[in-house]
Automatic annotation (TrEMBL):
It comes from the Bacteria. This is Metallophosphoesterase. Pfam families: Metallophos. Coiled coil: none annotated. The lineage of its organism: Bacteria, Bacillati, Bacillota, Bacilli, Bacillales. Residues 50-200 form the Calcineurin-like phosphoesterase domain.
Length: 274
């Protein structure tokens, strides 16, 4: 009997170790999701343009070997916030921002952990590495004579609606909003919103879903979503992407929710192709 109990105990311990190794590996995978998205109001000159999008890097160190092949292969790099967290090594953040700036022009917004980490240090790093911080502000991306508007909404900001109201309704608009619930509450048409914050739940148990994710976020934990308020909404044709994030929060583990970044190819709406 004692031998049976010992064997059971050893099996449980080994299974636990194997699970921990698997979760650590899932959290440190370099996984790029490549996909095309039809964007309302996209100027024809932007058709086929590529965005490298990543969010929630936190303490994870980006590797040059994983990313350097993307130089001259993507047009812009967009970060959905949380490039840092409280107590982080600032040289690590500088390394990550420098590497991304090497690939293409970089744009970012603040996430909740960025503000806890210290925006004074972050602003200096952004400035030194050429990363453009969009803190309740806009800029224009250009292709030839055409342009689209990139809107950055600060975390927990109340200015998102007013930013959109100030823009030409004919312009194609891409917004970076760290929190997807904030993104869904924006009033005014947006063609594409890039978000993060949820980490996809980070630990997702089969049959139960992301049990440690706040209930308010479970319906938008990760993936693509329509921005239509309801079936009768004819003004809003845009889409929302919620990234699972590239780093981790609290524990360096993931389960059934691998780390990811995206290469997004922008396409005109098929029914609007010339």
């Amino acid at each position: 009997m004692a031998m049976v109990i010992l064997a059971w105990f050893v099996t449980v311990i080994l299974a636990g170790i194997a699970l921990m190794v698997h979760m650590w590996r899932e959290a440190h995978l370099h996984h790029i999701v490549s996909e095309e998205v039809e964007v309302p109001n996209l100027p024809s000159s932007f058709d086929g343009s590529k965005i490298l999008y990543l969010s929630d890097i936190h303490k994870r160190k980006l590797k040059k070997n994983d990313l350097e092949h993307l130089r001259n292969q993507v047009d812009w790099v967009i970060i959905g916030g949380d490039v840092a967290e409280k107590g982080i090594s600032w040289p690590l953040v500088r390394h990550n921002m420098s590497l991304l700036s090497y690939i293409a022009p970089v744009f970012t917004v603040y996430g909740n952990h960025d503000k806890r980490a210290g925006t004074v240090h972050l602003e200096r790093i952004f400035r030194d590495t050429g990363v453009q911080l969009l803190q309740d502000s806009t800029t224009y991306l250009r292709k030839g004579k055409s342009k689209l508007c990139l809107v950055g909404v600060d975390y927990r900001s109340r200015r998102g609606d007013s930013l959109l109201a100030e823009l030409d309704t004919k312009d194609c608009k891409i917004a970076i909003v760290h929190d997807p619930l904030e993104a869904l509450h924006l009033n005014g048409p947006v063609d594409l919103i890039l978000s993060g914050h949820t980490h996809g739940g980070q630990l997702v148990f089969p049959g139960f879903g992301p049990v440690f994710l706040n209930k308010a976020y479970r319906s938008v934990s990760s993936g693509w979503f329509s921005l239509k308020k309801d079936d009768n909404d004819t003004e809003q044709e845009g889409k929302l992407l919620v990234s699972k994030g590239y780093g981790t929060n609290h524990l360096p583990f993931r389960l059934c929710c691998p780390a990811e970044m995206h290469i997004i190819t922008l396409r005109m709406l098929s029914n609007k192709q010339p």
